[in-house]
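cron nightly-structures :: item 1 of 1
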Amino acid sequence: MLDMAEIEKRLEFHEGLRLQPYFCTRGKQTIGVGRCLDTNPLTVQERRVCGDWHHGISRQAAFYLLRNDIKRCVKELKSGIPFFEALDDERQYALIDMCFQLGIRGLLIFRRMIAALGVGNYKEAARQCLDSAYAKQTPARAARIAKCIEAGRFEIR
């Protein structure tokens, strides 16, 4: 798997960093690097680190939350997609990114994409990634992730 710093960098690129709480385009309260507080509330330990998040958090706290979210996604991917650990780093990253954005339940809806990934049909997996509401809602991000799935390379363009 890619190192944590690289995953953090890519997710920050996709999500942005906001130290003040805000409402995302779907009306969900969010903070840091895309941490949706409505679906993923702060744990007791995270509240200790963040303090009074209602008035903002530090960059360090935002990345603490992000690392926790990445670890949660990886754990969910390992249990939800049996071949996750057999994928190369870039394709693992693509699934981490999608899980981060959509949640594991949202990602698991991509049954055809996951099946194609499981047999190494990356072209079809990328096509399935792009044939979705996800791709319509975040077209640039979905295009980067689909390219990562198909070519095994992450490119920012």
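cron nightly-structures :: done
The domain at 4-151 is CATH 1.10.530.40 (Lysozyme).
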